[in-house]
């Protein structure tokens, strides 16, 4: 049932490998940071090697206990979470987690978060020396911590600074993960491009909240949380479309993917790869179904490589309408 | 294979439909490895709203028939959607998940339940009895109607001592399950000497009943307190106890709770806290089954974490889905703001 | 089945009337602009007098044909629309629509849109003279027109300018309707407060898009559209919460209300009234159910007036935690 | 009362389940006022995904039994959810909505359908026949299996002339419905003189069949073209026509289409455009039933608007839900970018 097996079975295969700048993935499907632990939690349900890459939970220099419960609640077609960057901290990560991560049969992307530019630099310096890491994903957009986090992600100058600091410390491919909680995502994309990012990933969660009407208080211990899941997909696709127009960097698109059609939507909008987050909660087999569906789609539509899909809805539209890339 | 499509063997109301309780029997691979206290993470429908799976405890396990039973209350959108699923359909289920209760090797096992917290305890009672443990149930619910709907009959069939309470006093003691539990404990600690005094202070009927049943064959004589209106209880519950036959009449070593005593507790958070504090203070091995909202169910999202403390009081986080849902009562930090 | 009948039937009533600055509504439930036509389209399904107010479709100085089809599509728990402000224009509105609107047994709120500050001023001047209008709602946030619209709504200075221009031209209560497509909604709220708004309504739709994977093109004729419906409710509630902290103006909250619990959520977060838009599409009886549910909720929880609910989750939280109004 | 909970009387596959077609019969108030071409706006489930109602045409009306029939294809999330609804449940429905087809007072009514565009036409055929109109059906579908599943049998029972085509040629002409329609029209205009020439040019079997049936009693002699493989068609369709008995043999006034001719067209957009252009150019009264995505269904949201033009070519917008779904073919602006 693995895509590779399928490919052989069906003869003429569709090329699933994608190159995003310096990051080559055997297929374009990545587990989204924070939703897939440290890679193994789901292995009974979905083989680790299924994934093109796995982005592990965001790491900070110091260990963090995260926010008080409740940390999540459901909203219509969405998940609202306020985990608050619970993680073992850099030292423990290097000691107890990274060795096991190195053995995973997939590209390991380490997601990093900080509360100052120095935090990010420290993380990049330290992780940049380690073997077995395919890329660093700079989370400048986590909305669940009271200070830092979101600020970097919503201010173009700070975003650029953070990315530049990471860039200086490592030769690993640098993925800048953008927050959707901004007026103009293109401005942020240009800022991280200037900062030296190799790849842009988006979107992180939308800032939201939910109130328990019987108790007359916010549901989440942290009051606010980040909204993910199918509910946010239209916003995410729009932002991928916009960023594809604004910068030349490859894009990892995410937000609400629960099936291959959703993944194709992101690719056609401009993404070179996609991440699946909340979709795993709904069904751990989503990545398998996405890969199978992607292959079938390419075959039906006559594409020999998934890379051909990237931005196709934009280029075909431009060809059809001469509207070029005008904002809708 | 812990990700499976279990076949719905039967699905319908449990007891009075007005109570909104449902019984769901699934046939498939989950039964092979399921342990009491574990749960299934159920995709209630193939729609995107409700989106997330719902954790539901395994209430009974029948390995021979490859069946597990899940009992639930229709509460919100997830359980409403689940309630519409029909026998013959297949249900997308992760599990069995979580650690489950630890089944003591020997000694006595007290089950303490509040409301639908009773559901996961049935499988544990079965397992405990199969191992030859002395099993005793303390259970508080809204009303007699609720308890009867939620499986009182089946519990009676187990022939173990039942200590019941209801918020409206319609069966057993009036009040939460801490009333019969606390009463029974106190009697066992203070001994018969103080009993009449306790009765005079207006202690609960269950407490009195328990005392009565310790004194003599149960259900024979009522104290003053019992006379107040617990005939029904006496007839039903004490009857069950006397019929239980597993234990010597009186049900409990006089003057002291049994030395090798384990508690398994499930119910609303406040109730579990109260019960755990009672038991931990007395040095019993207390296990509580915590509830948190869950996304992944497998330890990947950190959405269900709670704070625990070790012997030295150091705080750390545990995942209810993976490290729990069952935790030692002494480790749980009940203050939610931590 | 009307709330009034119910109130009498049950004796001791819950006061449903709300005062939002100069705008008094017999109950806090308003039909959201653009989803309820000119008030009568749904009258067979839900009596017009049910509503505390009805905000009619956005009016521009000149008639507009709107965007090409398809103008809408469904997304998970959401609606993506790109109607593009189709409307008869000011002159025709005054001649053919307003006379009939005056006879509606509810407060009529006229929603106005423009492409320049002068447009808004013109609309306010002209409509401000007319009888039978309860308030003007200044739509500075429509994302479905290529120029204007969204720009005003995402730039604090322009937002203030537009509202001030309207303010100068009319004595009617001025409602400023905010766009959620901004980094900091509080900044916009403060701007329209400075501009002289009496009331703030939010949120308008989130900018989104959807791509037809088989046709490899955007679903909507306009490419982008505005996302509404239950999917966006967590974002909307969060923004109401933030705006309640930022300004002293009464708030009309909206975004994804399909039941009374949702309406209560907005009130507890800080709204004084709520609007129902996409919810009508799902079920035209939503306003009836919301009113009935609101009354029952107040009765159960011991409130004699719905006005007591406004912001209660915030004040109670502040009391409980001494965290004050700290951002989550 | 146009907002109602209609009871599901029956609900199941229409024809071969593999075609994914469903038949839904509803009992309630909608039947009392329903007209052919109107639709119901159906809330498929009480979940929030799929969120919006789905417009579904009224396929048959039985006022005496207070029943309407809806036929649909399971296509996406809305119809999938609808397909799960069970007989006995109540369906939340707005309608009947829209204008419906206008039923001519007299003359001939040609129904032209592509694929499942056939569904709303059945009620119209019934109404037309009840009024004593000459009714004729042109219908193109994917395959013989599709046509048979989608109700060919029922149409045959109406005993009207049927002109069929399939994309795979498995029944009737090979190609879209424009093939039999165009052929039939051309024959009627050009007269018998050019017929053999047309046949020689390889015109469609249906065209040939139509010609054949005009020449003599139908189904007796086949032209060269027909011999190619349309025996099945001949046996079935022409058989129907000859049995129809409503019309003199030959089915159509020779050399000219009937003067008082109305067309009701429903199907994919491209097909409707082609058909409308054929009919409008010849001055027939053509009505097409447009499809647009709908939110409110009652004219309140402007989500379903299409561009129309008046006689002087002036463009304006119309709501498919309220001003339609049926529009005069000559008014429709087919270019979607307008
Ligand atoms: C390990 C575990 C085992 C469980 N076993 C059972 C069982 O055997 N039988 C049973 O009936 N229920 C059980 N539950 C609870 C059950 O999962 C929830 O009642 C159910 O998820 C509610 O879902 P819903 O969709 O009906 O309600 P929702 O619509 O999701 O919510 C209804 C109300 O309940 C609140 N709520 C929902 N989930 C939780 C939660 N996990 N904790 C606290 N509040 C919540 C919501 O805020 C809301 O107010 C268990 C929960 C856990 C964590
Ligand atoms: C007036 C009217 C009458 C109709 N009558 C019938 C009927 O009698 N029987 C029947 O089977 N169908 C009928 N339809 C079409 C039916 O409403 C749609 O097929 C149905 O909404 C598809 O819903 P879905 O949820 O299954 O698909 P979705 O999941 O909503 O969509 C599946 C695919 O279809 C596309 N799509 C959905 N709706 C439309 C639309 N309205 N126009 C164009 N593309 C669309 C989507 O983009 C997607 O690609 C009618 C439509 C209208 C407007
Ligand atoms: C529970 C949870 C935890 C998350 N933690 C992180 C994180 O640590 N770092 C990060 O960059 N993104 C984090 N995210 C965001 C996801 O990686 C992803 O960007 C977002 O959820 C949108 O994708 P989805 O809709 O597929 O879930 C988290 C999301 C969820 C739901
Ligand atoms: C089809 C449609 C048309 C709309 N037109 C307008 C408009 O003309 N002016 C306006 O201010 N808001 C307009 N809106 C936004 C709504 O008034 C409302 O702010 C938004 O839909 C969120 O509420 P809801 O989730 O309840 O729909 C429109 C929304 C929809 C769905
Ligand atoms: S539910 Fe995801 S870690 Fe427990
Ligand atoms: S669907 Fe709303 S106007 Fe037609």
From TrEMBL, chains A, C:
Annotated metabolic or biological route of this protein: Pyrimidine metabolism; UMP biosynthesis via de novo pathway; orotate from (S)-dihydroorotate (NAD(+) route): step 1/1
EC number: 1.3.-.-
Gene Ontology terms: cellular component: cytoplasm
Pfam families xref list: DHO_dh
Annotated Dihydroorotate dehydrogenase catalytic domain residues: 16-295
Keywords, ordered alphabetically: Cytoplasm, Flavoprotein, FMN, NAD, Oxidoreductase, Pyrimidine biosynthesis
Alphabetized SUPFAM superfamilies for the sequence: FMN-linked oxidoreductases (SSF51395)
Function field: Catalyzes the conversion of dihydroorotate to orotate with NAD(+) as electron acceptor.
Cofactor entry: FMN
CDD domains, alphabetized: DHOD_1B_like
Subcellular location: Cytoplasm
Name of the protein in question: Dihydroorotate dehydrogenase
PROSITE patterns tied to this protein: DHODEHASE_1 (PS00911), DHODEHASE_2 (PS00912)
Family: Belongs to the dihydroorotate dehydrogenase family. Type 1 subfamily.
GO biological process: 'de novo' pyrimidine nucleobase biosynthetic process; 'de novo' UMP biosynthetic process
Phylogenetic lineage: Bacteria, Bacillati, Bacillota, Clostridia, Eubacteriales
Cofactor descriptive note: Binds 1 FMN per subunit.
Main localisation: cytoplasm
UniProtKB/TrEMBL annotation, chains B, D:
Top class in the EC scheme: oxidoreductase
GO molecular function: oxidoreductase activity
Keywords: Oxidoreductase
Domain FAD-binding FR-type: 1-103
EC number: 1.-.-.-
Source superkingdom: Bacteria
Classification via CDD domains: DHOD_e_trans
One Pfam family named in its UniProt record: DHODB_Fe-S_bind
Record's compositionally biased regions (Low complexity): 210-225
Annotated stretches, region: Disordered: 188-225
Protein name: Dihydroorotate dehydrogenase, electron transfer subunit, iron-sulphur cluster binding domain protein
Native organism taxonomy: Bacteria, Bacillati, Bacillota, Clostridia, Eubacteriales
């Amino acid at each position: 049932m693995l895509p590779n097996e399928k490919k052989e079975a069906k003869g003429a295969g569709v090329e699933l490998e994608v190159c995003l700048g310096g990051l080559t993935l055997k297929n374009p499907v990545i587990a989204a940071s924070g939703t897939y632990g440290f890679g193994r939690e789901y292995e009974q349900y979905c083989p680790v090697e299924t994934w093109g890459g796995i982005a592990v939970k965001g790491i900070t220099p110091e260990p963090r206990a995260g926010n008080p419960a409740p940390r999540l609640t459901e909203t219509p077609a969405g998940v609202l979470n306020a985990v608050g960057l619970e993680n073992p901290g850099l030292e423990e990560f290097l000691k107890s987690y990274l060795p096991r991560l190195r053995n995973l049969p997939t590209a390991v992307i380490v997601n990093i978060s900080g509360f100052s530019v120095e935090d990010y630099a420290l993380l990049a310096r330290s992780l940049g020396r380690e073997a077995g890491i395919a890329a660093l994903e700079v989370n400048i957009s986590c909305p669940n911590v009271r200070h830092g986090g979101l600020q970097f992600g919503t201010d173009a100058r700070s975003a650029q600074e953070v990315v530049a600091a990471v860039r200086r410390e490592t030769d690993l491919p640098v993925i800048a993960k953008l927050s959707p909680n901004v007026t103009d995502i293109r401005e942020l994309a240009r800022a991280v491009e200037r900062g030296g990012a190799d790849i842009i990933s988006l979107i992180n969660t939308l800032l939201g909240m939910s109130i328990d009407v019987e108790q007359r208080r916010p549901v989440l211990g942290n009051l606010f949380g980040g909204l993910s899941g199918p509910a946010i997909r239209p916003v995410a696709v729009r932002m991928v479309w916009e960023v594809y127009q604004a910068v030349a960097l490859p894009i990892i698109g995410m937000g609400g993917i629960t099936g291959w059609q959703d993944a194709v939507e992101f690719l056609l909008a401009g993404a070179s790869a996609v991440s699946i987050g909340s979709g795993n909660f709904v069904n751990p087999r989503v990545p398998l179904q996405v890969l199978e569906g992607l292959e079938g789609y390419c075959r039906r539509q006559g594409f020999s490589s998934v890379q051909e899909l990237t931005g196709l809805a934009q280029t075909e539209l431009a060809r059809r309408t001469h509207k070029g890339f005008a904002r809708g | 294979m812990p990700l499976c499509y279990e076949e719905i063997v039967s699905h319908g109301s449990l007891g009075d439909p007005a109570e909104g309780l449902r019984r769901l029997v699934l046939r498939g691979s989950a039964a092979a490895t399921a342990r009491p206290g574990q749960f299934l993470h159920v995709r209630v429908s193939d729609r995107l709203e409700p989106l997330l799976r719902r954790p539901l405890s395994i209430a009974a396990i029948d390995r021979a028939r490859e069946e597990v039973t899940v009992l639930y209350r229709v509460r919100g959108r997830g359980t409403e959607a689940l309630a519409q699923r029909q026998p013959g359909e297949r249900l997308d289920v992760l599990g069995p998940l979580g650690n489950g209760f630890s089944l003591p090797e020997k000694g006595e096992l007290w089950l303490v339940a509040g409301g639908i917290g009773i559901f996961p305890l049935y499988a544990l009672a079965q397992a405990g009895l199969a191992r030859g443990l002395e099993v005793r149930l303390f259970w508080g619910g809204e009303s007699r109607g609720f308890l009867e709907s939620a499986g009182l009959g089946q519990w009676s069939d187990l022939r173990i001592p039942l200590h019941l309470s209801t918020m409206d006093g319609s069966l057993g003691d009036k009040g939460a399950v801490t009333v019969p539990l606390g009463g029974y404990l106190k009697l066992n600690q203070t001994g018969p000497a103080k009993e009449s005094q306790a009765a005079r202070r207006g202690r609960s009927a269950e407490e009195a009943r328990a005392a009565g049943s310790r004194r003599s064959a149960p259900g024979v004589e009522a104290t003053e307190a019992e006379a107040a209106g617990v005939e029904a209880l006496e007839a039903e519950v004490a009857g069950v106890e006397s019929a239980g036959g597993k234990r010597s009449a009186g049900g409990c070593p006089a003057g002291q709770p049994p030395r090798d005593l384990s508690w398994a507790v499930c119910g609303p958070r406040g109730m579990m806290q109260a019960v755990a504090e009672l038991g931990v203070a007395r040095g019993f091995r207390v296990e509580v089954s915590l509830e948190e909202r869950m996304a992944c169910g497998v330890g990947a999202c950190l959405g269900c974490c709670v704070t625990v403390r070790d012997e030295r009081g150091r705080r750390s986080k545990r995942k209810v889905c993976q490290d729990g849902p069952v935790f030692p009562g002494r480790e749980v930090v009940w203050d939610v703001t931590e």
